[in-house]
Design a protein that fits this description.
The protein is mainly beta. The chain has one domain. The protein is 11% helix and 31% strand. The strands form three sheets. It has a ten-stranded mixed beta sheet, covered by helices on one side. Strands 1, 6, 7, 8, 9, 11, 18 and 20 form an eight-stranded antiparallel beta sheet that branches. The longest helix is centred in the N-terminal third of the chain and has 21 residues. The radius of gyration is 24 Å and the shape is globular. It binds 2-acetamido-2-deoxy-beta-D-glucopyranose (4 copies). The site of one 2-acetamido-2-deoxy-beta-D-glucopyranose has 4 residues, from loops.
């Protein structure tokens, strides 16, 4: 060994030892998603649209079932990609995208069979959509450990509810049509599914960039899609530099007088079983399910337009399902309960929980030091850290007057814990003051979602063992909650990752 080589040898051994030391004893991370940080050139993205109770109801004419996907592999040799970077020039002759989902697949709708379709689902729009999602998932699937994964999910929801339609159950129980003025609906057909346009991902800039997107409207008679007034609109455009950085997902969501309540999220859902708010088998991105308290979420968010005072922008919405006795959900909508925790970052959002409105507050708050503060402890309870709490409509043993959640907007009962930025969340890396993460405050967040969600109050029947808090949907986006004028929200999401933490001793 000559002198230089010897020095180098010891240098590398030293580096290796330093690396090992810095890893041991510290927190150790592994990603729960199939595409950590959204960096994979071969994108996998799915689309799903939901009516008020997370079903289809009726397909939009000519659109097929409201499930779609854009999944492809980037072909071209590594050598050529490397040379392209070295020489700062593009070699577009060799790079190409091989798509796995055809437009015919995306247009599949009731009455059209596909491989694996259960005949009972052929003419049922709700069951058909659930099976189409699994079919698209099978086309997009990527093998991985501990299990294969399918895609990121774009979820779009129309909040109109025609109570005379009989389409939505009440806390999971079938109910007769009824008359009510409590929900937005312009008349028959208000719960429709959208027109969906798809721009398949393609290479541009001489093969240095990739871009694709979904867009559309709920206004069915409308085909122009320009800047016209009072037309609802949604758009998600994804783009990425080949071989560099994260995909960027640019979102737009616009309400109109006919569609004043719309939701648009990008979700990392479970790859199988149920995902938040959905009582069918699902496809998704979470190859491992994160469980409280041992996970964090990292993402970059740039909110460009807020969507007005009613826009409940969620910098983290997590969804799961367990029964009131703490046992896992099994598809029985009478006893399954969807559970959500949402941090709302729009500074226009007031706190409905207050010393004078205790029913809108969770029964207690738990501090990072595990001190329990009851909501009637007016000297200590952090009221302004909560927007709204509502208990499941089928809870039998509530401790004092408590608001219950809307019984119709999920296929089963639901429970909501909605948070607002507040200094008490600082320990978890969450927004601590109004305006954090909002327009002009683009940031990369590392949120200790696991630790925070382990200390939230969720209803359970007395004397039952605490539920395992395993989360089947982790998402970001906005719910424009019955706006009284047309509103536009616009934001960009990138670098999304769910990190499982375990402390190595
Ligand atoms: C929506 O997407 C279609 C197809 O990609 C495109 O032609 C159209 O311009 C888009 N609409 C708007 C308003 O951007
Ligand atoms: C594509 O590459 C050619 C040759 O390197 C260059 O002249 C041209 O400007 C490039 N076009 C774009 C859109 O980058
Ligand atoms: C890349 O593609 C563009 C148009 O698609 C073409 O004009 C250009 O000549 C191509 N460059 C190379 C290096 O092949
Ligand atoms: C506050 O609420 C808790 C739980 O419901 C109850 O046990 C306690 O007696 C209440 N305290 C007062 C002062 O009302």
């Amino acid at each position: 060994m000559d002198f230089i080589a010897g020095t180098l040898f010891f240098f590398w051994v030293g580096m290796l030892l330093m690396l090992l030391c810095s890893v041991s004893g510290a927190e150790h991370y592994s990603s729960a998603v199939g595409d950590p940080g959204m960096r994979r050139d071969g994108l996998r993205i799915g689309f799903e649209a939901w009516n008020f109770c997370n079903e289809v109801g009726r397909e939009a004419p000519g659109m097929g079932s409201p499930r779609a996907a854009d999944c492809f592999d980037l072909l071209g040799s590594k050598h050529e990609r490397r040379r392209k970077h070295r020489e700062h020039r593009s070699i577009n002759s060799t790079l190409r995208l091989k798509h796995r989902v055809t437009e015919a697949d995306n247009k599949l709708g009731v009455g059209k069979s596909f491989s694996g379709l259960n005949p009972d689902a052929l003419n049922d729009p709700d069951l058909y959509a659930a099976e189409k999602e699994l079919y698209l998932g099978s086309l997009c699937e990527v093998n991985d450990t501990p299990r294969p994964w399918q895609f990121w999910t774009i979820m779009l929801k129309n909040g109109n509810f025609d109570t005379s339609s009989g389409l939505c159950p009440e806390n999971g129980k079938k109910v007769q049509p009824f008359v009510s003025q409590n929900f937005p609906c312009f008349g028959i057909g208000c719960m429709n599914q959208p027109i969906l346009h798809h721009q398949e991902t393609h290479l541009l800039g001489n093969g240095t960039m990739m871009r694709g997107g979904f867009n559309g409207t709920y206004d069915l008679g409308y085909f122009g899609l320009g800047g016209e007034e009072d037309i609802s609109y949604f758009e998600v455009i994804w783009e990425k530099k080949v071989g560099v950085g994260s995909w960027e997902f640019h979102h737009k969501l616009k309400t109109s007088s006919k569609y004043p309540w719309l939701m648009l999220y990008l979700r990392a859902d479970a790859t199988r079983g149920f995902s938040g708010g959905y009582h069918y088998d699902t496809s998704g991105m979470l190859k491992s399910l994160p469980e409280s308290p041992n996970f964090k979420v990292r993402l970059t968010l740039d909110v460009k337009q807020g969507g007005g005072p009613k826009s409940q922008f969620y910098l983290m919405d997590i969804g799961s399902c367990w029964k009131n006795d703490g046992s896992p959900c099994d598809g029985d909508t009478l006893t399954d309960v969807t559970r959500y925790c949402e941090m709302i970052i729009n500074p226009d959002t007031p706190s409905w929980c207050s010393p004078r409105s205790l029913p809108n507050c969770p029964l207690f708050h738990v501090t990072p030091g595990n001190r329990k503060i009851f909501r009637n402890d007016t000297a200590n309870f952090p009221y302004s850290a909560y927007h709204y709490y509502c208990a499941p409509g089928n809870a039998q043993h509530l401790d004092g007057p408590t608001s219950t959640c809307d019984p119709y907007s999920n296929p089963q009962a639901q429970e909501l814990v909605q948070l607002l930025p507040h200094p008490i969340w600082a320990k978890y890396g969450y927004p601590t003051k109004q305006g954090d993460g909002w327009i002009g405050d683009a940031r990369t967040w590392e949120l200790d979602v696991g630790a925070l969600s382990s200390r939230l109050y969720f209803y359970q029947d007395p004397g039952t063992a605490p539920a395992r808090r395993t989360w089947t949907s982790i998402d970001v986006g906005t719910e424009i909650f019955v706006s009284n004028q047309d509103e536009m929200a616009e934001w960009t999401l990138s670098d999304f990752d769910v990190l499982l933490t375990s402390v190595k001793s």
